[in-house]
User: Fold FIST C-domain domain-containing protein from Proboscia inermis.
Amino acid sequence: VNRPAISMLAGTVDASSIELFGFNELREPKLPSEGSSVWSELTSTSTSGNRSPSYLLFSDPWGPLTQTVDQLTTDDDRKPVIAGGITCPQYTEPTLALDSTLFPQGSILGLKLSHTLGLQAVVAQGCRAIGPYYTITSCERNALLELDGEPALMQLMKLQKELAEGDGRDTIGTDSVVLVGTSSYPPRTPTPASGKTTRNPPSDFLIRQIMGFQPNKNAILVGDQLTEGDCFRFHLRDAQSAVDDWELMLSRVQQERMFQNTGDSSEETNCEPAGRPVAAIQISCVARGTGLFGTENVDLGYGKQLLGPSDSTSNEAPIAGLFANGELGPVGIAGLSSSSSSSNSISQNSSTFMHGFTAVMALICDYTKDIKPQLDDDNSITAPFVEDDSAWQ
Assistant:
């Protein structure tokens, strides 16, 4: 049954670990200008040691989301983990509130997490790649002109024909939702035997919609700016692909956690210990849910697995969330230890993008375990504090 509902998450946290803020482009509180001390304070790492702050951002469709993300990511050496989404308003009614204040149309609200709290972000796509890898050889803004030196529209038509003549698993029909994926190529790596460098294709793509075509140019119009030299693949959206991608993301996160450098964040190792997930915010595209999967709570089920077992007295995992008209997050995963990232993957990508058709799971993590374990003797390790997940209900 579809009806109005409220999703709430409550917990007891150190007040020094969170900071709330909100801006509007035209009304008070207005978006601070570039170079303002407000941005310096919001991006300060003074309470987080070597770890950058994390941010949850929620905006209505008219809010200054892009400007806010740009100001929070100005430091090239410290890319924060950012997650969030765009609300789905009815007409021009307010969709954002802070304390008892409703924010007018054109607003954005944010939550800065630092000190003992931070984010791990996991983004699951809802599509699968089809056809070969291409290189974008010609484009103009969002118009894709050439792939591998051939007209882009002709390449799509060629792929459609090849799939129709194949085994039938992948076909582009009248009811198919064809999407496009782009990604920067990873750095070339030397081959030990020959010493020559090779360039492996990326494993993760930023997915965008096809907005239309320019038949006179044999061009495909994409819902984002394009860059010549980037890797490109066509994708098909379906429920099974969404489940498969969740399984892939879950496996990656589990592998990352196995190889975390827990407790050692020294400059010598250049590794940051990943925090312990204690709660989560789920932001799912409005095109997911039962409309995509035919059943309820598929995204939520994977969120529970990412969060892990809880000692909470409640039977429910501490996850709140919403359906969004655009999901904010990295490509793949971000915020975990980078020690096991592979050279041909951007699965550990702290850059922030606006997605579509995805589910973003923002895991709120406790970093108090950055304190090194105390050794009672050579054969035992004693935790420096008592864990209490029941604080999150």
